[in-house]
Specification:
By secondary structure, this protein is mainly alpha-helical. It has one domain: Tetracycline Repressor, domain 2 (Orthogonal Bundle), CATH 1.10.357.10. It is 75% helix and 3% strand. It contains nine helices and two strands; from the N terminus they run αααααααβααβ. A two-stranded antiparallel sheet has the order 1-2. Helix 5 packs across helix 8.
């Protein structure tokens, strides 16, 4: 009897689950819907992830990892202005494509994910942002007056707050201005490096 291609099945299940979380949120995900969308039996979903909670935890880790990679790429720009512009474009794209809905629904308070998974995801995202801002500030010949961890948590809060506003239908032009103002505050944390 031929063995199923478990790597492809696992990938299809993960893609289906992530797609459902992007459109329905974490609470709207069901094993039935994942199996239908992945084109497999419910038993195969259970085989790979055991439970809905196990599947959601795997989706949460995947969503967090992908988001961190996207933001790291956005900040890999030739100059600070481009990095800030690209980060705003990424934030609006995440809103339009459902990635923000997935992130927020998976990591909201009271989620079925373990607190450690949520805490690790936020810490990793904030550390990535902190490192990116530190590099940007240093590229301008400045030094941050606060730690990279602190600026990372600050920017992470700005990004997630702006994301909530985007999802709630707030005016994008107004939010873009507020995002720029937040960046003025962040950039003002840079001090000249003594020669």
């Amino acid at each position: 009897m031929p063995q199923p291609d478990t790597a492809n099945a696992r990938k299809a299940i993960m893609q289906a689950a992530e797609s459902l979380v992007r459109t329905r949120g974490a609470r709207g995900l069901t094993i039935d819907a994942v199996a239908r969308m992945a084109g497999c039996a419910k038993g195969l979903v259970h085989y790979h992830y055991k439970t809905k909670k196990g599947l959601l935890e795997a989706v949460g880790q995947h969503v967090a990892s992908q988001r961190t990679k996207r933001w790291r790429t956005a900040f890999a720009a030739p100059d600070a202005r481009s990095a800030i512009d690209r980060s705003w474009q990424l934030l609006t794209k995440e809103s339009d494509e459902g990635h923000l809905r997935a992130w927020l629904s998976l990591f909201e308070a009271g989620s079925i994910l373990p607190d450690q998974t949520v805490s690790d995801a936020h810490a990793t995202f904030s550390a990535t942002l902190g490192d990116a801002v530190t590099e940007m500030i240093e590229g301008l010949g400045l030094r941050l007056s606060i730690s990279p961890a602190e600026v990372g948590w600050h920017l992470g809060s700005v990004v997630n707050g702006m994301g909530l506003q985007l999802l709630s239908g707030a005016d994008r032009d107004t939010l873009e201005g507020a995002y720029a103002a937040a960046w003025l505050g962040i950039l003002s944390l840079g001090t000249a490096v003594d020669s």
